[in-house]
Design a protein that fits this description.
With 497 residues, the chain is of the alpha/beta class. The protein contains 16 helices and 19 strands. The strands form four sheets. An eight-stranded mixed β-sheet has the order 7-8-10-9-13-17-14-15, with helices on both faces. Strands 1-6-5-2-4-3 form a six-stranded mixed β-sheet, with helices on both faces. Helix 3 (112-123) packs parallel to helix 5 (157-178), helix 10 packs across helix 16 (483-491) and helix 13 (383-394) crosses helix 16. Keywords: Aminopeptidase, Cytoplasm, Hydrolase, Manganese, Metal-binding, Protease. Belongs to the peptidase M17 family.
Length: 497
């Protein structure tokens, strides 16, 4: 199981039946009496210097409070849902070797139990991996398979179902991103999309290389032609009866990115199986929407290819013809994500959805701009504000960036309608990519004067991976960033709420 089973309990804490306990505690440095019900615990906390600082974690020996192994984690001075989610995630991630852990939040936080359940489910994730450690080592570092969160009477079962679906979606993304490229070709990733949606009301269509050529998807074919493993395009359609809104999700699925003939340096190529994160995310989100029976139609497009060098590979200077007939001069074969996404955006636009969102590990420039925890957000229409509100509600870090018209001039090519990269100019690289994609978002009516379909571009190049230390509920490695925000965005119909 990729994450622990989450249960709720209204029993007095600590109840029997747990192998270990976790208490999330607010700042203790003030003059007040401290959290209610913890008087027997406070001397033990004082003895180890635990102050309740945010995400501070400690094991505590407090036999006067409970005979079960006990850990405490800090909520800081201003406890809110984000603090609870991070703190409980930290605790469940850190407190290993126990099968069942009971969790309590010693602070008044609106829907604190839900945030605690989210933190437990997300922090309890562990990738099965390929280590050959002894069983003894595995037992000592195993995370809980069951977490009991203490909640008030009448806690919302629907909210708990949403927590479980969100955690499962994040876990699916992390599992797929952690799978070595050797075992995840474009065809295998397409098969995974079929397999993981079986039993759900989701129609799946897969284009192989012959179907892609017949349909004119020149961007996906151009990126994938250098590989012995042909590309795929996958469409997943969840269309509940009576849905009044239609959201299209387009994900970049580069199963390995060498940079093509514009070959990456050796160090930059390590971890490039992660370049299919966007495709994994749109799969996970449409799957969660179906599980939760959201009354919104969601169509996900997974644009999948290997970007490899060979005698067949696209060369710098070659011109590709996109699915709508637009010609693109390829000036950098390592700017391949925008080429596969262009075809996906064209295909999504043809169905006239209310909103289009694309998700991609797109540009190193985004990491330079925003670091490794914020997702860069671009686009047009109220959908951008709607996504930012969803990100705020779910505690995801996101930042809006502009699409400057003066940079759009740099898209022009001498030999084609446009070019895919501004080689030699590092200024505004993430914005250039966003402007490139914008050209392929369809319009709401006939003619070039008609407004484009509301669109959000999410560049998760930095936020999709935690390359440093673990933090909050997030391990080192894939983060699943924007998955929970996208589920919330879909639930809101892509509208500002």
């Amino acid at each position: 199981m990729p994450h622990p089973e989450i249960e709720l309990s209204a029993a007095t804490f600590p109840a029997e039946g747990a192998d270990a306990l976790v208490i999330a505690i607010p700042d203790l440095t003030g003059d007040g009496p401290g959290p209610a019900g913890l008087a027997d615990l406070l001397p033990a906390l004082d003895a180890i210097g635990f102050t309740g600082a945010r995400n501070a974690f400690a094991r505590v020996y407090a036999p006067g409070f409970s005979d079960a192994p006990l850990a405490v984690v800090g909520l800081g001075r201003r406890p809110d849902a984000d603090a609870v989610r991070d703190a409980v995630g930290t605790a469940i991630r850190s407190l290993t070797g126990f099968d069942t852990i009971a969790v309590s939040v010693a602070a008044e936080v609106e829907d604190g139990w839900r945030a605690a359940a989210e933190g437990a489910a997300l922090g309890g994730y562990a990738f099965a991996g390929y280590k050959s450690d002894s069983q003894d080592k595995k037992d000592k570092r195993r995370r809980a398979s069951r977490v009991v969160v203490h909640a008030p009477e009448g806690a919302d079962d629907a909210a708990l179902a949403a927590v479980r679906a969100g955690a499962e979606a994040v876990a699916l993304v992390k599992d797929l991103v952690s799978t070595p490229a050797e075992w995840q070709s474009p065809a295998q990733l397409a098969d995974t999309a079929v397999e993981t949606t079986q039993g759900l009301p989701i129609d799946v269509t897969v284009w192989d290389e012959s179907a892609l050529a017949e349909a004119g998807f020149g961007g996906i074919l151009g990126v994938g032609k250098g590989s012995d493993r042909p590309p795929r395009l996958v469409r997943l359609d969840y269309a509940p009866a009576g849905a009044e809104r239609h959201i299209a999700l387009v994900g970049k699925g580069i199963t390995f990115d060498t940079g093509g003939l514009s070959l990456k340096p050796a160090a930059s190529m390590v971890g490039m199986q992660e370049d299919m994160t966007g495709a994994a995310e749109v799969l996970a989100v449409v799957r969660a929407a179906a599980q939760l029976e959201l009354p919104v139609r969601v169509t996900a497009w997974m644009c999948i290819a290997d970007n490899m060098p060979s005698g067949r590979a696209t060369r710098p200077g070659d011109v590709l013809v996109m699915a709508d007939g637009t010609t693109v001069e390829v000036t950098n074969t390592d700017a391949e994500g925008r080429l596969v996404l262009a075809d996906g955006l064209i295909a999504a636009s043809r169905e006239n959805p209310d909103v289009i969102v694309d998700v991609a590990t797109l540009t190193g420039a985004m990491i330079v701009a925003l670091g490794t925890r914020h997702t860069g957000v671009m686009g047009h229409g109220d959908a951008v504000d709607a996504f930012l509100r969803s990100a705020d509600r779910t505690g995801e870090l996101a930042w809006a960036l502009p699409l400057p018209e003066h940079i759009a001039e740099e898209l022009e090519s001498r030999v084609a309608d446009m070019r895919n990269a501004n080689v030699g100019n590092r200024a505004g690289g993430a914005l250039f990519a966003g402007l490139f994609l914008q050209r392929f978002v369809g319009r709401t009516g006939e003619g070039d004067d008609a407004p484009r379909i509301p669109w959000v571009h999410l560049d998760i190049a930095g936020s999709s991976m935690s390359t440093g230390s673990a933090f909050g509920f997030t391990d080192k490695g894939p983060t699943g960033a924007t998955v929970r925000a996208l589920i919330d965005f879909v639930a809101a119909g892509g509208e500002v709420r």
